[in-house]
Write a structure and sequence with these properties.
This protein is an alpha/beta fold and 217 residues long. The chain is built from 9 helices and 8 strands. The protein folds into 2 domains: 6-17 and 87-216, Rossmann fold (3-Layer(aba) Sandwich), CATH 3.40.50; 19-82, Orthogonal Bundle (DNA polymerase, domain 1).
Length: 217
């Protein structure tokens, strides 16, 4: 029997490839101000700490706070139009989640993406998957790497944090897992590289979703 009885997944870069829709939306905003835009690859290191941080990281360093705030509003409008255009699950993710459901392993999502978009994407792209909890960025809960949401999910699963496996693609996820007292899996198909995951003490590293199943079972 597996030592892991519950699993928490990150969203962007772990379950879903959201890079193109995010990059296109931010670039629309930057272009509206005449600011330089960024390549899709450059956005890999900007995603993961919430929408506001994304806009701050994407605009020129000397941008005034009022423009950042205005740009955030523009981004939310642009992303609302774009967020379902190219976003899709990574290969092998749907079959992995179905297998975990079939095995009776509770699965949850903990993301720094705004809660409404997190829920909408999961319902849209995983209509047949049962999630025991979904925590996007929401009032009353600190963003990752604070472990507040991860610990609340473990509590809802009625599991000790040591029985829960935390899966993500970035240092933010690995630190969240450590802060929550959970083992972690760093995935290599996401937005960050293996060196970052190892440097931040990923318990396991996997190259394909099947590797997650093999660790759990």
């Amino acid at each position: 029997m597996s030592r892991y009885k519950g699993i928490i997944f990150d969203l962007d870069g772990t379950l879903l490839d959201t890079l193109s829709d995010i990059a296109n939306s931010v670039n629309e905003v930057l272009a509206s101000y005449g600011y330089p835009t960024h390549t899709k690859e450059e956005y890999r290191t900007k995603i993961g700490k919430g929408f506001r941080n994304l806009i701050e990281q994407s605009m020129p360093e000397d941008t005034e706070p009022v423009i950042i705030e205005e740009g955030l509003g523009k981004f939310i409008k642009a992303y609302h139009e774009n967020y379902k255009k190219e976003t899709k699950p990574y290969g092998g993710i749907v079959s992995l989640l179905k297998a975990l459901n079939n095995k009776g392993i509770p699965i949850a999502v903990n993301s720094n993406k705004r809660n409404d978009y997190t829920n909408n994407l999961l319902r849209y792209l995983f209509p047949d998957i049962v999630f025991s909890a979904i925590y996007g960025e929401r009032s009353g809960f600190a963003k990752k790497p604070d472990p507040q949401a991860a610990l609340e999910i473990a509590k809802q699963m009625q599991l000790d944090p040591k029985e829960v496996l935390y899966i993500g693609d970035s240092k933010t996820d690995m630190i969240t897992a450590q802060n929550a007292g959970m083992d972690s899996i760093g995935v290599l198909w996401g937005f960050r590289d293996e060196a970052e995951l190892r440097h931040h003490n990923a318990t396991y590293i996997v190259k394909q979703p099947q590797g997650i199943y093999n660790i759990v079972f």
